[in-house]
Structure to design on (533 residues):
């Protein structure tokens, strides 16, 4: 009723609306494209980061662990990591580095020994768990540690376990030993 | 349910009503925005055009912040920017009406037909006399294009443009306004002219509509000349004219008597045609309703009629619902509301 319209059939509104819709579609498309590009770049960045880490590790190993077998490499990486931790602690407690460098060098002499556990505390008490395929190697290690030349640096040295161990993954037999020792201050005094 | 905007584009101001259709009309928001030009319909200088464009982008941002863009807008322009007339045509089919109007355009359309934008509403058909009466609304295409482009620049889509009077007719005939009288007169006083329409509410019929070449400017000029005032001061003085300003009333009374005589002529012709006179006159005069009410009441010819400003009529609560906070302001946005009913 009394509805008059002076722009009846006017096309401009429709044209504007369709332009507007196309612009919205185009903008949404661009936004989706940008999001996909960003995500792919981010994933590429993560992939390169991973590769870079691997490369850095490989370079590190090449520089520090040439000539080791896979088993030795595992052992070396574990020991080096521990040494790294020790070095950090050394910044605050310099004797740590001295003590543990001393002990790890004794253990790492034997290529077929794998260190399963190595914990240390502020009282210079160390708990070590090692494995070897040969029982004789473990005995050799005990002999080295009990040698008066070395044992004089320990306030305590006790073997908790020495047993035959069988890996769950394979049928290989090995020998497991865990021991605890505590350093006295002799090594530090000698060094000073 | 869909959102829609009712836009009333005055010379220097934009009034918007945001509504949701479906059931009673729900008014969601009201806004009044400045255009920063004296008259958007006038000849704008280059500087004014720049100012209008700058302000349009400001207004667009305001509308965006209110989430009122991207909506369909029904636009109302002042009556004086159109020509409203009831015309008589020989009885033709709906399809042939346009051709008939174009054929007789020189008689009805005040400009060349190719420069005009027009629409019509069939009022009555008399098969006995083979005649039909139409309400013909004509405006300059240039003005309509300018307004549509401006509304588009606000980020809303103009879907309809019409004059103030037809918006009022719908408000009255669709019972949005609580008017009990059957025969009423609606007077819309613009700046340069006045549209006077006689409505029969029960028959939902526009009886007559006439344009008087007297608008508010006629009274501003009287004040300017007599009191040596600039236009703006005269405008403000007229808008705030009260019963106590006897000296000023003396100045505006003679031009109003002239105005009243013209209204009276229309009333008398209505008496001839219908055998009855309206008891109530509903008045729309943006900014000047209080002053004109005073003048109507003080005029011996128009005194017998009850003069009611449109802004004082109650809106039917069954037809329009809104937030209680917006309700007191809603009557000031009647024209914008009329665009969407």
């Amino acid at each position: 009723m009394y509805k008059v319209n002076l722009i009846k059939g006017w096309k401009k509104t429709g044209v504007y609306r369709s332009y507007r819709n196309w612009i919205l579609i185009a903008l949404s498309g661009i936004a989706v494209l940008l999001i996909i590009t960003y995500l792919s770049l981010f994933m590429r960045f993560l992939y390169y980061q991973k590769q870079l880490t691997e490369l850095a590790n490989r370079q590190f190993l090449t520089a520090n662990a040439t000539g080791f077998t896979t088993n030795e490499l595992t052992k070396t990486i574990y020991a080096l990591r521990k040494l790294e931790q020790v070095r950090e602690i050394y910044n605050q407690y310099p004797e740590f580095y001295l003590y543990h460098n001393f002990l790890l060098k004794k253990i790492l002499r034997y290529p077929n020994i794998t260190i399963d556990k190595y914990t240390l505390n502020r009282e210079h008490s160390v708990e070590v768990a090692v494995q070897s395929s040969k029982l004789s190697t473990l005995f050799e290690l005990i002999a080295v540690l009990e040698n008066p030349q070395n044992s004089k640096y320990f306030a305590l040295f006790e073997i908790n376990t020495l047993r035959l161990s069988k890996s769950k993954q394979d049928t290989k037999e090995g020998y497991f030993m865990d021991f605890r020792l505590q350093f006295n201050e002799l090594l530090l005094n000698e060094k000073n | 349910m869909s959102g829609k905007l009712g836009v009333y584009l005055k010379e220097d101001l934009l009034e918007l009503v945001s509504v949701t259709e479906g059931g009673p009309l729900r008014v969601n928001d009201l806004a009044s925005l400045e255009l920063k030009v004296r008259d958007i319909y006038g000849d704008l200088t280059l500087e004014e055009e720049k100012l209008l464009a700058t302000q349009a982008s400001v207004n667009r941002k305001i509308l965006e912040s209110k989430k009122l863009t991207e909506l369909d807008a029904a636009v109302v322009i002042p009556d004086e920017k159109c020509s409203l007339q009831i015309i008589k045509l020989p009885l033709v089919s709906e399809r042939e009406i346009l051709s008939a109007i174009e054929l007789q355009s020189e008689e009805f359309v005040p400009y060349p037909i190719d420069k005009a934008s027009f629409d019509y509403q069939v009022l009555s058909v008399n098969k006995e006399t083979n005649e039909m009466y139409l309400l013909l609304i004509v405006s300059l295409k240039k003005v309509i294009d300018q307004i549509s482009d401006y509304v588009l620049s606000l980020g809303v889509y103009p879907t309809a443009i019409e004059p103030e009077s037809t918006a009022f007719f719908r408000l009255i005939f669709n019972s949005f306004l609580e008017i009990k009288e059957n025969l009423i007169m609606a007077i819309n006083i613009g700046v340069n002219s006045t549209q006077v329409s006689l409505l029969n509410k029960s028959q939902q019929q526009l009886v007559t509509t006439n344009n008087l070449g007297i608008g508010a400017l006629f009274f501003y000029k009287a004040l300017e000349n007599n009191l040596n005032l600039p236009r703006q001061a005269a405008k403000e003085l007229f808008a705030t004219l009260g019963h106590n300003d006897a000296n000023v009333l003396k100045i505006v009374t003679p031009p109003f008597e002239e105005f009243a005589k013209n209204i009276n002529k229309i009333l008398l012709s209505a008496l001839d045609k219908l055998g009855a006179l309206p008891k109530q006159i509903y008045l729309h005069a943006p900014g000047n309703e209080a002053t004109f009410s005073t003048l109507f009441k003080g005029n011996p010819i128009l005194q017998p009629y009850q003069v009611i400003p449109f802004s004082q009529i109650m809106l039917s609560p069954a037809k329009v619902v809104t937030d209680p906070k917006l309700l007191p302001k809603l009557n000031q946005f009647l024209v914008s509301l009329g665009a969407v009913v």
Notes: Residues 80-139 of chain B form a domain with the Dna Ligase; domain 1 fold (CATH 3.30.1490.300). The mean pLDDT of chain B is 92.
